[in-house]
Write a structure and sequence with these properties.
Shape: globular
Number of strands: 0
Strand content: under 5%
Order of helices and strands: HHHHH
Structural class: mainly alpha
Largest sheet: none
Distance between the termini: 50 Å
Number of domains: 1
Helix content: over 70%
Length: about 100
């Protein structure tokens, strides 16, 4: 079951964030202000989920495993925007020919 939740979180992280916020107290005490959760929800949802997971599962201790997970989460969040830009550039080049 946790594997299914993990896979669901990778495919639809914003829905998982909304479900966690409405149905659990997962984000209580993780962020001091409302600014960071809102920005995380809008721009980097997987990174926000990983940050809150480190806070809950590892008691906020940032070791090499947690930092590696953070890097992977950032890459997952940034990768779709890079692919969209590449496709747009390729389309423009193809149209110009």
């Amino acid at each position: 079951m946790p594997l299914l939740v993990f896979l669901f979180a990778l495919f639809t992280p914003r829905l998982v964030i909304i479900a966690l916020y409405l149905l659990t107290n997962w984000f209580n005490g993780v962020f001091k202000t409302l600014l960071f959760p809102v920005l995380g929800f809008l721009f980097m949802p997987v990174t926000m989920l990983w940050y809150s997971a480190v806070h809950h599962w590892f008691n906020g201790q940032w070791d090499i495993l947690q930092i590696a997970g953070l890097v992977v989460a950032i890459i997952i969040d940034i990768a779709p925007t890079r692919m969209r830009r590449r496709r747009r550039v390729v389309r423009e080049v193809v149209v110009e020919e």
